[in-house]
Amino acid sequence: MTAEPPIETPPESEEPEIEPLPKWVAAAIGAVLVLMAGLAVYTGLRYRETSTFTSIVKPRRSPAPAPAPAPPGEPQPGSSLVYPGDDASNTPNANAPVTGRAHAEISGGGTGGIQTTLRLTARRAMMMKVTPPDAMVYVNDLAIGAAQQLSTPDQAYDFPQAGSYTIRISAQGFRDRQFIVTVADTAKPEVVKIEADLAKE
Fold first, then answer.
1. Pick from 125, 102, 105: which is nearest to 183 by CA?
2. 114-122 vs 177-183, strand pairing mode
3. What pLDDT, in 10s, does the model give residues 74-85?
4. What residues are paired with 104 via a beta bridge?
5. Rounded CA separation 66/82 (Å)
6. Residues 6+ apart with CB under 8 A from 40
7. What pLDDT, in 10s, does the model give residues 101-137?
8. E strand or H helix at 76, and its extent?
9. Given this model, what pLDDT does residue 43 score?
10. Collapsing DSSP states into helix, strand and coil, what is residue 183?
């Protein structure tokens, strides 16, 4: 019987040592990261500067008569939501701009009570926050809709042209409130927000 040759076990393989990266690779990666962070800051500042600039410099609004009719179903600037009219002719006419520095007018007295009229300005439109929300809003005595229909920026009431408008808010069982909004290119707010809690009679 012949003896089998001993089985040779392969020597344990030694893992090759991983050479460390050169120092210049770490420096290059750091430089790239710093460059990317700088670009992110720069573009963020550019965006902020642009938005700040556009919030300060507003596009000028040209005072013009009511524009041509829009497609059916879309109210015209200044048109009534209650009685819109077919050709956008049912819009209030602007009064002469109210001048002076006073921000309120006080009138009335006696048994009828005192009536205060706040004077506001806007470049384009107005919004409402009124209690009760179903109070009717009149612009130069034209019913334009309920206050709750004018409560969000996309529902803001667009004035048809520059000038002054008398805004009256009326609800059954409550005292009326009155405001004067002067629409002009020089006004600070583009959309003025009128807030009123009507007092019960």
1. 125
2. parallel
3. 556 777 777 666
4. 118
5. 18
6. none
7. 657 666 666 665 667 788 999 999 999 999 999 999 9
8. none
9. 73
10. strand
